[in-house]
Amino acid sequence: MELYLDSADLKEIENAFQLGFLAGLTTTPTFMHREGVTDLDAMIVKLSKIVPVLQIEALGDTAEDILKDAERQLALGLDPAKTVFKIPVSLEGVRACKLLRDRGMMVNVHLVYTIQQAYMAMAAGASYICVLAGRMQDQGYDAIKLIGECVEMVNFYGSDAKVMFSSVRNAEHVRNALDLGCHTITVPWKIMKVLTENSFTALGTQQFVEHTRLITVTVGEATNGVNPTVSTDTTLADAIVKMTEYGFGCVTVVNADGSVKGVFTDGDLRRYLSSEGRDVLGKKIGDFEYKMPVSIEADALLDAASALFKKTSVDTILVTEGGKAVGMLDIQDLK
């Protein structure tokens, strides 16, 4: 099924065609008016240089008028092999379709609401027969049934016409088109962007990224290089200032020789304030008792750190090199 973009927004068009596989662009004077276009011809020429195939309106009261409008636009420099003229279905419209086709131009007969209109478009040699699904449904018609009938008719009679599913309002319309075996669909960018989205896909991708990171990145590479440390003779008040400056919930306490004495956490602070009051702020940080901190060497893989987080139920692990503190690994650093 050919995939077209339905738009007149230049930014959307540039983004969409970076995909590299869109068949072309459908647009309308209504779209261009909505985008504030004041020079229709200049815009058409610009679009023709961006997209593989451009489908634009050819208008007129009679078949001859429609033909003249198509020829006028081709004279702007459009390539007939890359331009499809959209003609609203009517008696003059299908006559114009035949005139254009006899001259080697491609035609999309659109605004089709009945199978009889679709048949007349096919009989006139239309390159595309376009049903506006969303607009039909807005008016209470069974657009999906009609499009299915059009596909069946074209296939049954061996016509070269392609049935186009247009006026796409949601991703389900794209599924409808696929189910019906439509030959072509034209989709707004806001809907096209979500066609690859699925929550399970996102979850699976996230897991792949996280697990790859766990077995390829070392602890040292994952730490941000920030290592708030204080000596044992630092007051608790000054240690709190250091924690605040670095935005950490803990600080590493080191002896004079650089070896680790322990890690003082904001949890420790709350416990000491509760038991000893504000006077505790004047104590030296080295005066407190410390358990051996949970630590890991910088050259270990994050997978080992993940296992250590699960085993110890801590949120932060001390990172060391040769027994000396070089940083802190937060559990969020695993992601």
From TrEMBL:
Keyword Secreted: no
Location of the CBS domain: 222-280
Pfam families, alphabetized: CBS (PF00571), TAL_FSA (PF00923)
Source organism superkingdom: Bacteria
SUPFAM superfamilies found in the cross-reference section: Aldolase, CBS-domain pair
Coiled-coil stretches noted in the UniProt entry, renumbered to this chain: none
The keyword Metal-binding is annotated on this UniProt entry: no
Gene3D superfamilies per UniProt: Aldolase class I (3.20.20.70), CBS-domain (3.10.580.10)
Gene Ontology biological process terms, A to Z: carbohydrate metabolic process
InterPro entries given in the database record: Aldolase_TIM, CBS_dom, CBS_dom_sf, TAL/FSA
Keywords: CBS domain, Schiff base
UniProt cross-references to PANTHER family, sorted A to Z: FRUCTOSE-6-PHOSPHATE ALDOLASE 1-RELATED (PTHR10683:SF40), TRANSALDOLASE (PTHR10683)
Official protein name in the record: Transaldolase
Organism whose genome encodes this protein: Runella rosea
